[in-house]
Write a structure and sequence with these properties.
With about 375 residues, this protein is α+β, with helices and mostly antiparallel strands. The chain is about 35% helix and about 20% strand. The longest helix is centred in the middle third of the chain and has 23 residues. The structure holds zinc ion (ZN) (2 copies).
């Protein structure tokens, strides 16, 4: 790991320790997933072997890992205290030994990863019978909501990858007609890779005609016809961070009668919500700004979801841009602004960009044409 990266992860861990002291917790225990990645840089899917990161409120972090990951965590993380157990050893004994060393066994509060598998939480409970358990988000939530410079840089680059792929899809124009949604989704996956995406942020959404009226329809066998509005929603990860943007395009021919009006309302709603973003404003107010425009156009009941979601290592995370969220926006928060109108059996329209809250407004992370012509 580079010195720069190590410094950034060390600084996050230091902030995490401060938070642990603020909330009166002895330690944080992470399991493979986004929290572990956030603090150490080690990106690994959850697995059946005991792998924990212990971050004590006072003291250095400890990684307990199965032997087959030892070399990897020594090169891919900055954590120096790595303890190893081998297949054939008792992982519970290794866990207990680490906990005793850190003096966590006899009480106090322990914050465990919100997504830790129950069997591992049970093992921690057995090893710390006197401890009170809480969730890691109590300490990490406020940190992960505000992106640091390194995270913002990755999110910008991920946005640029999605933008480039989208431009190349639109360049195909009428040639898209006759493709199935799946054909187009496969093409988008290739374009994202060519543009520098490391992996898909989520299953590519190509919702053509009536399929576009189902907000989370992924893609199917339907053939894209002339005049079909097509909802294109996709993103790729760069340095672990995802992009997520949506355009609704008619590749050839005349769209359905109501389409232009709906598209214009959604586009105006999206612009109004982005314009509402600044520090101190509530998430609810941003949602309201989008909803007012769509209600005025007569489609309030067809805007069936929240206006947006936070984006970081997780594609969906805090802050949620939704009517009942009174959380105020702070510089460094990154979220989607994605109003949509869905007319069942006919078509859907959604326009989405990611925005970062700046000191005095918002920075868009997506910059391509928001219109419906290819
Ligand atoms: Zn999306
Ligand atoms: Zn989204």
């Amino acid at each position: 790991m580079s010195t720069d990266a190590a410094d950034a992860f060390r600084a996050r861990t230091e902030r995490c320790r401060n938070r642990l002291r603020e909330v009166g917790a002895e330690a944080l225990v992470c399991f493979p997933g986004r929290n572990l990645q956030y603090l150490t840089g080690f990106a690994k899917d959850p697995g059946e072997r005991h792998l924990f990161l212990f971050v004590p409120a006072d003291g250095d972090p400890v990684l307990l890992v199965p032997a087959l990951y030892e070399a990897q965590v020594r090169t891919e993380t900055w954590v120096e205290d790595v303890r190893v157990w081998g297949d054939g050893d008792d992982p519970l004994a290794a866990t207990r030994a680490a906990i005793e060393d850190l003096e966590l066994s006899d009480g106090g509060r322990l914050l465990v990863d919100d997504r830790m598998w129950a069997r591992f939480t049970q093992d921690l409970r057995a090893a710390c019978p006197g401890a009170e358990f809480g969730l890691a988000s109590e300490a990490l939530g406020p940190l992960r909501r505000r992106k640091d410079a390194r995270e913002l840089d990755a999110l910008r680059r991920a946005g640029a990858v999605a933008d480039r792929a989208l431009e190349r899809v639109r360049e195909r124009g009428a040639a898209v007609v006759g493709d199935t949604e799946r054909d187009l989704a496969r093409r988008i996956e290739r374009l994202l890779t060519e543009a520098g995406g490391e992996s898909l942020a989520f299953d590519v959404i190509v919702g053509s005609g009536p399929n576009g009226a189902m907000p989370h329809h992924a893609h199917g066998d339907r053939e894209i016809g002339p005049g079909d509005p097509v909802v294109l929603d996709f993103g790729a990860r760069v340095d672990g961070y995802p992009s997520d943007q949506t355009r609704t395009v008619v590749f050839e021919g005349d769209p359905p009668a109501a389409f232009e009006r709906v598209h214009e309302a959604v586009r105006e709603a999206q612009a109004a919500a982005v314009a509402a973003v600044e520090p101190g404003v509530t998430a609810a107010a941003v949602d309201r700004a989008a909803r007012e425009v769509i209600e005025a156009a007569g489609y309030g009941d067809e805007f069936v979801h929240r206006t947006g979601h936070g984006v970081g290592l997780d594609v969906h995370e805090e802050p949620y841009i939704v009517a009942d969220n009174d959380r105020t926006l702070e510089p460094g928060m990154v979220f989607s602004v994605e109003p949509g109108v869905y007319l069942p059996g006919e078509f859907g329209v959604r326009i989405e960009d990611l925005v970062a809250v700046t000191e005095d407004g918002a920075e868009r992370l997506n910059h391509t044409d928001r219109g419906w012509h290819p």
